[in-house]
């Protein structure tokens, strides 16, 4: 499924930040509105207790590998608070690597309210899911399923019943979901990361060689999923 054209009415003019297009019938104030954007949370670093320092290395490495392949698309790492450890680690490491700040940046906000509260248009958002792909359970998973309404659970079930660690599944959102109508999100990509929390299924018991491999796979699956929508 393709992202609906209405989200990018004048994509050929996207390079010009101040373009006002009469042909589209509406003003395009900023090119940002036309850039396909994936907003994603840091997979596994909260409830799944994956080490922040190690996760930040993997995020920056995977983003660096992927941004080069993106045309007219960008990635945004999101977390809830200004004090987010993962955001500051990733921000510093991305700057060190000279990753293009137009193609990748960090953003503080609720991933289910990026446009309505933060003014940031994101066509696609990622979810740090559980293996059953079930609503609830806390964290970003609970927020996304709750904000999307029952439509997301139905659409998810049509695509997959469960998820293996390191895998992702792309779910198109029905237009009547509030996440679509209010925030402009057309797809949710569920990702299952490695789990280091003994209270959750498939705990890796601090095996970071396995855990890092799975987290790398998770970001590859996520970014490939986004690329499949952008294409
Ligand atoms: N907006 C943006 N970021 C958020 C939001 C939000 N609304 N909520 C949390 N984060 P977590 P995990 C950040 O725990 O570690 C669930 O119960 C959070 O600060 O949601 O992969 C699932 O069902 C952190 O940086 O995911 C799984 O069982 C990041 O999102 C399990 O937790 C991920 O935190 C997955 O654990």
What labels would you give this structure?
231 residues; 6 helices; globular; six-stranded mixed β-sheet; alpha/beta; 2 domains; disordered N terminus
Task: Please characterize this protein's 3D structure.
By secondary structure, this protein is an alpha/beta fold. It folds into 2 domains: 34 residues, no CATH class; 196 residues. The protein is built from 6 helices and 6 strands, in the order βαβαββααβαβα. Helix 1 packs across helix 2 and helix 1 packs parallel to helix 6. The N terminus is likely disordered. The structure holds ligand AR6. The site of ligand AR6 has 25 residues, from strand 2 and helix 3.
Question: What is the fold's blueprint, element by element?
Answer:
Layout: E1 36-41, H1 52-67, E2 73-79, H2 85-96, E3 104-108, E4 124-128, H3 139-148, H4 150-159, E5 168-172, H5 178-181, E6 187-191, H6 208-230
Parallel strand pairs: 1-2, 1-4, 2-3, 4-6
Antiparallel strand pairs: 5-6
Bound molecules: ligand AR6.
Ligand AR6 binds next to β2 and α3.
